[in-house]
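Dear colleagues,

I hope this message finds you well. In preparation for our joint manuscript, I am sending the Zgc:123103 (Danio rerio) sequence together with its predicted structure, so that both groups work from identical material. I would be grateful if you could confirm receipt.
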Amino acid sequence: MWIFLAGFVVLVCAADATPVLGRTFPDFGKMYHVKGVLSLPHSKIEEPFEAWYDLDGNRSRIDYRNSTVRTFQIGNDLDFGAIYKITPVIPPSVIRCFQLKGTKDDPIEPQQAIPDAQSFEFEKMEDCKDAQCEVWKKVTEAGHKKNTYRLWVTRGEAAYSPATPHRFEMEGFNSLLGSHNDKYSIEYSDFCTQSEPDVFTPPAGFTCEEFPDPPEEHQILANPFQDYVNTHPVSHAHRMFGPFKEKFNRQYESEKEHEERENLFLHTFRFVHSNNRAGLTYSVGINHFADKTKEELARMTGGLLPKKEEDAK
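The corresponding structure tokens are as follows:
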């Protein structure tokens, strides 16, 4: 299937929503609670999370780093739903609430912590976590980017029982650069198909305000998990590269350099937002160094990089 989006020609290699080789697509139910760890190998980050999902109630919640940051996606709030983010800010003793309102064209919906497998195709059976796992695969392409997604699940004994997720992995290949330049994974645990209703209620006592500038980052600040389980090759983080180039007047000499710089920016962008969910005594942001290599940064600063800038690469 071909999709035309924002200047990209996107090929989505996916199966129809019908059983494959006698196997039905993994279904995780309309309600669940799950824990996990998001791993970003490039930045050497492992970020724990906990998620609750309730489709019929039109609501979800995802907590990061042992509930240091809590996000609530409530589709029935206000006119078109709202996202609430409860997070520490500098100084770290201050907890604040930020709000993102849905619109008629972009209403807020509950956010899954597990990818929708309806467009995946069965690949193979494989040992995982002392069990036989089904491995489901999806490949997407846009421009020079080719992403391969894999999802490892087990099934209950009863027919049509919800699947249990164990691992989700994305590996990106850039044909222009000739390299596997992107990868992340999610390890799941403690999956169950029930959830207490009171976990979806944002805590009282806060006056929620709009997210701070820049406005183009509001969506990923409010709902960072969306980018990781969405299987479209052009993520919100990728789309942020355009505003970055405009802000810092970036002009690259070739298409190859553009791809290289975008990849550097992508990893820096992920690091910045994951780091800021850790509740540390400092925060980091996107600046004019975001598309530079470690070697370039060392030359620009005489090898005396500030600790945070060095870690950001």
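For the figure legend, we might mention the following. Helices lie at 218-222, 225-229, 236-239, 241-247, 255-276, 294-300, 307-311. The chain has two domains: 2-233, 238-311.

With kind regards,
E.M.
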